[in-house]
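Supplementary Text 2. Reproducibility record for the structural model of the 239-residue chain.

All settings were left at their defaults, and a single model was retained for analysis rather than an ensemble. We include the record here because the model underlies the residue-level annotations in Supplementary Table 4.
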Amino acid sequence: MNKGRVLVVIPSYNSKHGIVKTISGVLKEVPEALIFVVDDSSPDGTPFLIRKKFGDNPRVKLLLRREKAGRGSAVIDGFKKGLLDKEVKYLVEMDADFSHDPKELPGLIAKCKKYDVVVGSRYITGSKIVGWGSRRRIFSKLANIWARLVLGIPITDYTNGYRCYNRKAVEALNSSMIKSKGFAVLSEVAYILYEKDFSFGEVPSVFTYRASYGSSRNFGEVKEAFFTVLKIKLDYIRS
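Retained model, structure tokens:
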């Protein structure tokens, strides 16, 4: 791919233990990628660390927000700024704590040449979840089954924030329409694009829970996403 055609947006909050490894992994696997780290003024020094390690790298940009506003809005803000670069063709979102393996990026991006949106799924052949207990595995699986039952999008994983979108799909998003917060934004964005007839594909993904890294993936947010799915459907029926 040509220079600047892939943008990787990494939402960040208190991510100092994983952010350097994540950025370095992206640069290694997709050397031509642009990286936007959208940080909500992490008090743990994450912004300072990014500037120290990557301040001289023109491919790494730090977008600093004044307060914690959530993962979903951070990704949307990163995408908005990314679209200003007319050379950007594919836009990726991934976690900052190295729970998403950068080695999967080339496959994710390659499949996005065929589909408008490609999801790194934890629930298809070749996938794996590392570090979750049985209760959380069961709840997440049920939440995704419920989301597919209600929303009908032909994917198996609605709550994993490892995705690639083509430019046309991101341009079709109207951020003012997005009502959800936290990880529920993932389901709502997918539903908006599905209703606009964009195509969806999946690739297997190995998800590693990084509890010691202060992961932003909060169990309460995942639980909230379960109940928000029905609201997403009802809101769009009414609109």
